[in-house]
Design brief:
Order of helices and strands: HEHEHHEHEHEHHEHEEHHH
Shape: elongated
Number of helices: 12
CATH class of the largest domain: Alpha Beta
Oligomer: single chain
Bound molecules: 3-methyl-2-oxobutanoic acid
Distance between the termini: 62 Å
Largest sheet: 8 strands, parallel, barrel
Strand order of the largest sheet: 1-2-3-4-5-6-7-8
Length: 281
């Protein structure tokens, strides 16, 4: 059964945790879907983990559409949320509605996600009025990395903490169906989760949130270099990949691959005849 906005809301109400993971391609989406993840986020984190940028700012609508289409084809049951990339909604309410519409109509997503609080409420209202569910994103909002001066925990002082709570209430009132809380203290996420009627989905925001989201490369040990404190490694797929790749290289160089088991055969008479015709033994 396809997960929907109502599924996520009823999970909040019943206390069943929501599971969300990122995916950026068909194969990964298929596997996550088969495992029963509730929602798949086509995050603009793809700029970093798929395209090798330093941050999410260069990601375009075309990048997001390309990856969202692939994920949507692989997600039979999971609720697919597509990120709105930097400058696809900040520029105007009109741009926000048009670009959100493209992610649903061309990309096949069921909802869009955008970053920010009070300053994007008009956009959220207009997108929801166009019958498109919107997931908000507060706390460490990576598209504001230049304002924050790096990827840092947010909401650690009183003013910033209250601003995040106020923003959460405002985007709920504007019509958001859920909100991602990234990199904020667990106690702050708890207050927000208790005050909101829509689900909170945490990443580095403690375990009281209504659900969790992780970047799949982080949780499967595929990320090289620094990974944030909250990114628990649930499996070491990176090591498994390296082992497999090294075996392939060794066996190919030694001639042990492909062996008979991985080779097609043909009737000897046919080969004899071809060789004879070509003047060879
Ligand atoms: O882009 C992304 O993957 C995200 C998650 C970190 C929540 O926004």
């Amino acid at each position: 059964m396809k997960n929907t906005v109502s599924t996520l809301l009823s999970q909040k109400q019943s206390g069943e945790k929501i599971t969300m993971l990122t995916a950026y391609d068909y194969t990964t989406a298929r596997i996550e879907d088969e495992c029963g993840v509730n929602a798949i986020l086509v995050g603009d984190s793809l700029g970093m983990v798929m395209l090798g940028y330093d941050n999410t700012l260069p990601v375009t609508m075309e990048d997001m559409l390309h990856h969202t289409k692939a994920v949507s084809r692989g997600a039979e049951n999971a609720f697919v949320v597509a990120d709105m990339p930097f400058m696809s909604y900040q520029t105007s309410v009109h741009d926000a509605v048009v670009n959100a519409g493209r992610l649903i109509k061309e990309g096949g997503a069921q909802a869009v996600k955008l970053e920010g609080g009070a300053e994007v409420c008009e956009q959220i209202r207009a997108i929801v009025d166009a019958s498109i569910p919107v997931v908000g994103h507060l706390g460490l909002t990576p598209q504001s990395v230049n304002v924050f001066g790096g990827f840092k925990v947010q909401g650690k002082n009183y003013e910033r903490a209250v601003k995040i709570i106020d923003d959460a209430l405002l985007i709920q009132e504007a019509g958001a169906c859920a909100v991602v809380l990234e990199c904020i203290p667990a106690k702050l996420a708890e207050i927000i989760t208790n005050e909101l009627t829509i689900p909170t989905i945490g990443i580095g925001a403690g375990n009281v949130c209504d659900g969790q989201v992780l970047v799949y490369q982080d949780m499967l040990g595929l990320t090289t270099g620094h990974t944030p404190k909250f990114a628990k490694k649930f499996a070491d797929v990176g090591t498994l990949m390296r082992e497999g790749l090294n075996s392939y290289i060794q066996e190919t160089k030694s001639g042990n691959f492909p062996s008979g088991e991985h080779t097609y055969s043909v009737d000897d008479d046919i080969i004899k005849r071809i060789k004879k015709e070509r003047g060879k033994k």
